[in-house]
Amino acid sequence: xxxxxxxxxxxxxxxxxxxxxxxxxxxxxxxxxxxxxxxxxxxxxxxxxxxxxxxxxxxxxxxxxxxxxxxxxxxxxxxxxxxxxxxxxxxxxxxxxxxxxxxxxxxxxxxxxxxxxxxxxxxxxxxxxxxxxxxxxxxxxxxxxxxxx
Length: 149
Ligand SMILES: *[C@@H]1O[C@H](CO)[C@@H](O)[C@H](O)[C@H]1NC(C)=O
Ligand SMILES: *[C@@H]1O[C@H](CO)[C@@H](O)[C@H](O)[C@H]1NC(C)=O
Description:
Layout: H1 3-18, H2 25-31, E1 43-48, E2 54-59, E3 63-67, E4 70-83, E5 86-97, E6 100-103, E7 106-110, E8 113-117, E9 122-126, H3 141-146
Antiparallel strand pairs: 1-2, 2-4, 3-4, 4-5, 5-6, 5-7, 7-8, 8-9
The protein binds 2-acetamido-2-deoxy-beta-D-glucopyranose (2 copies).
């Protein structure tokens, strides 16, 4: 093998490695102009197809917590298609509206707002709400409780 080929392989494999997997799911969201806090704490791993944007995010268990007056539930595996500022065909996240669990199908950024869409309706929240990832159970309010630490 010539030195040239060897160098090429080395550079190629290095760049593959660097551009590869070592970002957290939260960082991937931020790179796509979405706040990391739309995912709760506790991501175990994720898969992302960089071509199609199809992703799967794995948690150890289901996770639910309040957002304002709503209750939101994440299944232990969620999936969807990631684009800049938008997640489409989201699977595995639902919100309780009155007595019913409704599937959140889309999340998108609208300026300083994050819209959570359930198909026929959507609800806007300030991006600032999602600066920190919520924790299962107490959600975003845990931070107020522990912020003195
Ligand atoms: C890459 O990810 C692995 C597993 O999450 C971690 O152990 C390692 O420290 C990371 N490396 C860098 C350079 O971030
Ligand atoms: C998920 O569960 C495994 C095995 O019980 C544990 O080692 C790991 O720390 C857990 N990960 C998270 C993010 O809770």
